[in-house]
Amino acid sequence: MNVCDFSRSFVTFRVDLQERPLITVSQPPPFTLNNSRFLLECRCRIARPNAAAATEFVLSASCKAEQVWVKENIWHDPSADMCLVASDEDFMVAKSWDRNNRGVMLNPPSLGPQPERQVGKIRDAFSRLKIDIHETPGRVLTDVSQIVAAVLENRCLVSQTEYEMPDGTKVWIEYPVKLINASERETFYQVDTGPVLVPDLTAYDGKSLISMLRLAFMAHNDLGCTEMLLNVPTPIADGISVNHYSRVLKVQAVNRLIEVA
Prior knowledge:
By secondary structure, the chain is mainly beta. It has two helices and 18 strands. It folds into two domains: 131 residues, no CATH class; 125 residues, no CATH class.
């Protein structure tokens, strides 16, 4: 079977201020044209009940809010973590500051405060957004001893997780295995890796499918456990919350570990 080669797969968005203004930044850019390329962290397909086809989303690597092409003062103050979720039509910019509802304004300020999860249409925010997925042959490892051997011999692994949500939505997630535990004595493995994209019905805005996606870390093992640790607003004091990996989602899933050729 073919799997994504995450080391050579990218999502790139292009902004051209001569075509349209930026609606996702908090500071005016000093350039008129920029292409931002991100490595991919995850692919996620969602098939809603009665949908004609599944919709595929990708998750970009994380970066920090920056001012591009300046002599100094590159990092924004306050700083923010940022990543991009995208399909062929929609995008979501996910940002986290030292606390939620930070009040950082979009540029121009008439656009209002920048949300932690900004959802929109690609055509309204970017001149172009391109998803380039490079696939490579892979071999499904069907035995725990094969998985343990692959780990100890430092072979590259990709994992796939499939499950069905309570409302009948079918989910397929593919992601690189960055961390895995293995024992040649007890003969076990356990994946602990991320971030990945996981749909959460409590996040759905009722309009855009991309709005239900959250960042999560994935864990599964040879005992049949599949648990995702979701990044959600997490209270830390009265009226104060941060985005943190704090809510556990347990599912009955089919997991595959695939050795990348």
